[in-house]
Amino acid sequence: MLAEIWDRILTTQPLPSTGAVLATAAVALALIMVPGLWPLTRHAVTVAHEGGHAIAAVLTGRRLTGIRLHSDTSGLTVSRGRPRGPGMVLTLLAGYTAPALIGLGAAAMLSRGLAVALLWAVLLLLALLLLQIRNLFGLWVVLVCGVGVFAVTWWAEPRLQSAVAYALTFFLLLAAPRTVLELAVSRRRGRARGSDADQLAGLTRVPGALWVLVFAVVTLGSLALGVAWLLPEVLDRVGA
Fold it and tell me: Which of 69, 131, 223, 229 fits as disulfide partner to 138, beta carbons 3.0 to 4.6 Å?
């Protein structure tokens, strides 16, 4: 069993056609832009967001105590350690940038034909995240995501596995800037006073608006680079 799983992980797949990649991008864009879908699919972005906080907390030496995911697509990651300093700054900074950076890493893997390896990596991250969930709704969200990824990884044919991997990657790359835009709008309306940007402002004395700009630069830069890796032929034609 383990040998079979390892063989699947290491097996590379032929890169799909440009048309197929564009189709997955269109699907991902629909999941983000269709009003009735976004309130559901945004939970996946929250999973990546809170996962980013958690990974940064652990890497900076903080003690991770739990993660909560809420039905309104918000989330909360709690860690213990110094209330100020670089570790806390990096932990807060990781939230809005995590979906984009995960998407960028996924794009790098797909450009090398590692679609199945990407799905297994996502499954591993979800399993680790599941250990830190502290509420029932969060448990349900992570389990649904995990079961879906496992089903595709284990039973789907290679072509479908590749399509799902590309759609997931485009989804993360495209959704990350939208959440930053939502944050900017909420702050302008005075509805996000406890946001990551405002907490960073309190720690660093750098205005929250500048931290929102940092989030935007990272997410848009990751989107541009990720698209360049996933659609090199299209960009070459545009450049010509």
Answer: 69
Q: Give the separation between CA 234 and CA 103, rounded to whole angstroms.
A: 19
Q: What share of the chain is helix, strand, coil (3-state, %, to 5)?
A: 75, 5, 20
The answer to whether 50 and 95 have CB atoms below 8 angstroms apart is: yes
Rounded (10°) angle between helices 86-110 and 196-204: 130
Consecutive H or E run containing 46 = helix 38-59
Residue type, 132: Q
The pair of structure tokens assigned to 209 is 């608006």
CA atoms within 13 A on the CB side of 28: 26
**Model pLDDT for residues 167-186, shown as the tens digit of each residue:** 999 999 999 999 999 999 99
* Tokens of residue 141, six digits: 């969200």
